[in-house]
Amino acid sequence: MTFAPALSGFSSRSRDPLRALRRSAMLAAGVLVIILGILIAPLPGPGGVPVIAVGLVLVLRSSYWAKRQFIRAQHARPRYVYPFRRLLRKNPEIGPIFWQQALRAEKMVLRRRRGPLGRFRKTLRRVWRRTFRKA
């Protein structure tokens, strides 16, 4: 006779109170970071947006309810949720994620095929190749 079915009804909180405390602390920290990002948002520059993104990542990693809402949003608007999915990975590549978002924002604002960021990237690539091919 096994007791596995009887134990399956217990939540992770009742089995490990330290884990529940850690999740609650991460959730509280995430909410505080989001509030901080909202307070920073009116200041000049994009300072509030990355801070809010970090707060959302903390909340998503610590709340089952937030994960369910995130999955619903992912099904409804996959293009908007994709950058957050990339940030939730174990070792996220933060630079390429923000570069991709900058290109998307530029494309929305300018509505041209190749904007200043695209030209800058191509110029930078040419300079990089010239510098390191000679070396």
Mean pLDDT, rounded to whole units? 78
Secondary structure tally, helices = 8
Beta-strand proportion:
under 5%
Distance between the termini: 72 Å
Unreliable runs: 1-10
Write down how many β-strands occur, each being a DSSP E stretch of 2 or more residues: 0
**Rg, nearest Å:** 21 Å
What is the ordering of alpha helices and beta strands? HHHHHHHH
Tell me roughly what share of residues is in helical segments. over 70%
Describe this structure in words.
By secondary structure, the chain is mainly alpha-helical. The protein folds into two domains: 81 residues, no CATH class; 42 residues, no CATH class. The chain is built from eight helices and no strands. Helix 5 crosses helix 6. The N and C termini lie far apart (72 Å). The N terminus is likely disordered.
Give the arrangement of secondary structure elements:
Elements: H1 4-7, H2 12-15, H3 17-40, H4 48-62, H5 64-76, H6 78-87, H7 94-110, H8 116-134
Helix pairs in contact: 3-4, 4-5, 5-6
Main attributes?
single chain, 135 residues, mainly alpha, 2 domains, 8 helices, elongated
